[in-house]
Amino acid sequence: MRTLDVSVVTPDGPVFEGTAEMVSSKAKSGELGVLPGHIPLVAPLTISAVRVKQDGKTQYVAVSGGFIEVRPEKVTILAQAAELAEEIEVKRAEEAKERAERRLAETNQNDLDQARAEYALRRAINRLDVANHR
Ligand code: ATP
Question: Which portions of this protein are annotated as coiled-coil regions (predicted)?
């Protein structure tokens, strides 16, 4: 079976390196499923799960935005932060979610603080979703 090399890289180093039969991700333009031989492209990702299908199993990776670069035999994901499902600290994500919800409920915040809280909430919800797939 044909496979792809897959790397998920953050400023702290690689989070995942391996081969896959398929990589699914959520680009800003919509769902992006990549099989070996895909045409080259670069696309921005949403705060979402990347799913790497390998030997009939699927590894979930939480990515906090970033970019996907697709080449026919390689997928590279560059993200500011990324975690494997099994490495996510659930308590930390729950606390981040509660903190963000509290901030969003405050009415005296400026637009920038509101936007920051919204992104923090999305990151936390995404981590909690991905942590369910371990
Ligand atoms: P927190 O408020 O808990 O720090 P955050 O969304 O602000 O959450 P980020 O700025 O996205 O955190 O990430 C900072 C670093 O912490 C990254 O290396 C990221 O992988 C890691 N990280 C954040 N939350 C978690 C988590 N729940 N489990 C494991 N690693 C995490």
Answer: 78-110
Q: Are 19 and 39 in contact (CB under 8 A)?
A: no
pLDDT single digits (tens) 28-49: 999 999 999 999 999 999 999 9
- CA atoms of 18 and 74, how far apart (whole Å): 10
Q: 77 and 26, same structural domain?
A: yes
Mutate to test the pocket of ligand 1, among 10, 16, 45, 64 (most ligand atoms within 8 A of CB): 64
User: Residues of the chain with pLDDT > 70: what percent?
Assistant: 100
Q: What CATH number should be reported for the domain holding residue 95?
A: 1.20.5.440
More confident residue, 108 or 5: 5
Which of 54, 69, 85 marks a domain boundary? 85
CATH number of the domain that residue 64 is part of: 2.60.15.10
What pTM was computed for the model? 0.96
126 lines ligand 1 (CB under 6 A): no
Give me the pLDDT at residue 1, please. 76
Range of the domain at 48: 4-85
The answer to whether the beta carbons of residues 48 and 126 sit under 8 Å apart is: yes
Q: Which atom of ligand 1 is nearest to the CA of 83?
A: 20
